[in-house]
Amino acid sequence: MAEETYLLIRGGTVATAEFMMKADILVRGEKIQAIGKDLTAPDGAEIINAEDMIVLPGVIDAHTHTQLDTGIYQTDDDWFISSRAAAYGGVTTVVDFATQFKGQKFAAAMDVRLKEAAPSVIDYAFHMMVTDLPPGREDELCTLTALGVQSIKLYTTYRPNYYADDATLLRLLKSASRHGLMTLVHSENDAIVTAQTQALIKAGQTSWRYHGQSRPALAEQEAAARVLFLAEAAHAPVVIAHNSTAQTSLLVAEARDRGQIAFCETAPQYLLLDNTRYAGAEPWRYILQPPLRDPAEKEALWTLVSAGVVDMLITDHCDYAKEKKIAHDDFTQTAGGLPGMELLLPLIATYGVDEGRIEWTDVARLLAKNPASIYNMWPRKGDLLPGSDADIVVYHPRKESIVTAEALHTVGGYSPYEGMKIMGKVVHNIRRGQFLIRAGKFVGERGSGQYIKREPIFWD
Question: pTM for the complete prediction?
Fold first, then answer.
């Protein structure tokens, strides 16, 4: 048996969702052993000086698309490339997706994804994307528990591949609730999106600059309201995915006020970018679903993040190559999705904390504890507690840089945040006691990430 190692992170400002204080963290093997002032470590322990640094729980990006195959488009990354880039940004765990394709059993879908994810350097869990579960078979969702899956993904759009009509949504929400599963829903009204897209096609307005018009804010808001209504009827917990408007998040808040178990997430693209980008020189950089919104939405969403209405900040990361994105100046033929995992923490630190919108404790809550709690990984993940996995980020808050594609570690060759200022840098990123990033350099071991199995949660 290998000798157990000790690591002492000394003198940093420790930030969790509950507190912020100057403290040391002692790590034994893969776990946190103690947090406190003036801790001592056994002989031979490695000591990291974290003076003037912020020490955070490892970031959990709970909505990512690594090595994605939609059946139409494929991202250009793989799990080693994606997880290495994520590690540079302080991410230690992701919740990605396993897609159940037509005629496929859940176990087969998981087997494919587990093999693909094997090279990962960060830990990973999966939402099951449910696309083929006809009436009478919905209780097959119970088989997900044995696979370690605690959440499913449904769509109200993307007909015919992923689309679920209202009857299907209601059936699957009820069954998911019975089996202790969380349901994450991509909410856009498919009829509105289809009609608007067809109108633009008929008018010959399919260039990238029209993308935002093809998926109106109303489509998101209506679908979110409908999903929440159905989830209430089904007594089912639900997450409304990637809110691009403040009204969507407010609908979730109102549902919670009525007693529902409901959560929401938004992403840096909706907090920092807006639809004026479609009129700029490079609209191809911003093709995603839902699209960017009116400039006023950014500050409205930040207000809700600051107020604690938004539960999680995620990226919806999709690493398509630039060549693929620019192949056709036609939003109907362009893969939707943006790279972002590597920049999640730095962007939120810069435009959230540094600009006074949120505190470091909010960062720990939104990027670590809340996703771990909602998706049943806490307290193993998402916190700095004795007994928790030693997933720890040491962040220098005063290092200034500019986002450039050349400095990033994704394969797409571009960033939607090109030219934006970043305040801060991940100095060390530690996953289960092992360094992934040491003094800013990648030192992780290919395939050292683990699949995190999750148990059901019965919220009632």
Answer: 0.98
